[in-house]
Amino acid sequence: MKFLKNISLKKFSNFRIGGKAKYFFKAKNISEIKKALILAKQLKAKIFVLGGGTNILFNDKGFNGLVLIPEIKFIKKINKNTVRVGAGVKVKDFLNFLVKNELSGFEWTGGLPGTIGGAIRGNAGAFGGEVKDNLVQVKSIEINTLKEKIRNNKECLFDYRSSVFKDKNVNEIILWGDFKFKKGKKEKILKSINEKINYRKERHPIEYPNIGSIFKNVPVENFKKEFIEYFKSKNIIKIDPKPVIPVAFLIAECGLKGKKYGDACISLKHTNFIINLGKAKAKDVKKLINLIQKTIKKRFQINIEKEIIEI
User: Fold this and answer.
1) Which residues are catalytic?
2) What's the rounded Cα separation, in Å, for the pair 134 and 33?
3) Exposed, middle or buried: residue 282 (CB in 10 Å: 0-12, 13-18, 19+)?
4) What is the mean pLDDT of residues 289-297?
């Protein structure tokens, strides 16, 4: 086994931003993942596990270690309503499988980029739905010991855009997940999926390189009473799935819509998106992120949390 060397990360990020990875490897199965981990250990290389690259901001200097992509791409039915899907399967491909098999419950992911592994790790959610609503169990592998582990839904410790796999003390790679659905009618499932896709096309700046929502929406309970009353008067409290204030609203309220550093720009279409107008650098994006955080802190007396991953 050999790793590729000095591979540009730009083409592996939706942002089209990033330097080079010292080592790079795509693993086609669990055996190759284990071999890659062993070799990385021998090389004393840091490891970053990459999925679809749809929420990653790579550093301009690149990554001085191994970028490992687990391309576990199988999909199979366990029983009539339960499906096992590899972490490397794209969400859209999984949806196509569900439509074909008339399984309902994942329609909210229509238009969602990225892989199933990434969706599990971040407990992806939209339109009131979340990964945890359908997930039965997850299999992962511990990076240091190579031990494989299966967790049920409860053991995954799902929370708002989070799971046990985001814990710094849990150094694991997601291999596959089992999901349970309900039988549905193909036409109805497709209609619901297309509604979500069209919504994203209309409201998200997908015509530009981006990595989705930069910040997590903020639970209403985190704000002071005076601000909660203001939000109620504006009728912008969103259920996602608990009551939250969209960060896009906060950014717009702070007058930051369209703000630019270099070719990095706060989207006019959706202010919780930063877009790459062509030649944006990670340093430009980070300047905008810092500006947004500081301005919102001053205006609303609240700290907002990033949803993206910075490497």
Assistant:
1) 161, 213, 307
2) 27
3) buried
4) 98
Overall average pLDDT of the 190-199 stretch = 97
Angle between helices 186-203 and 91-100 (to 10 degrees): 150
Distances (CA, A) of 217 to 53, 239, 248, 279: 21, 10, 8, 28
Under DSSP, is residue 249 helix (H, G, I), strand (E, B) or coil? helix
pLDDT band at 293 (very low <50, low <70, confident <90, very high): very high
3-state percent breakdown (helix, strand, coil) of the chain, nearest 5: 30, 30, 40
**Strands in 52-204 per DSSP E:** 56-57, 63-70, 75-77, 82-86, 103-104, 125-126, 129-130, 135-142, 148-152, 172-180, 182-183
Rounded average pLDDT over 110-134 = 95
pLDDT attached to residue 184 = 97
For residue 158, the one-letter residue type is: F
Domains within the chain, CATH numbers bracketed: 4-70 (3.30.43.10), 75-198 (3.30.465.10), 206-310 (3.90.78.10)
Kindly report the number of other CB atoms within 10 A of residue 103's CB atom: 24
pTM over 0.70: yes
The residue with tokens 């086994």 is 1
Q: What are 126-133's contacts with CB under 8 Å, separation 24+?
A: 126/196, 126/240, 127/196, 128/239, 128/240, 128/241, 129/105, 129/241, 130/158, 130/241, 131/158, 132/156, 132/158, 132/163, 133/105
Would you state the pLDDT for residue 91? 97
Q: Write out the H or E segment, with its range, that includes residue 250.
A: helix 247-253
**Residue pLDDT, tens place only, 231-283:** 999 999 998 878 999 999 999 999 999 999 999 999 999 999 999 999 999 99
Alpha-carbon dihedral sign for residues 97, 100, 103, 104:
positive
Please tell me which residue, 169 or 5, carries the higher pLDDT value.
5
The mean pLDDT value of the chain amounts to 96
**Among 271, 208, 213, which Cα is nearest to 240's?**
213
DSSP 284: H
- Give the SS3 label for residue 216: coil
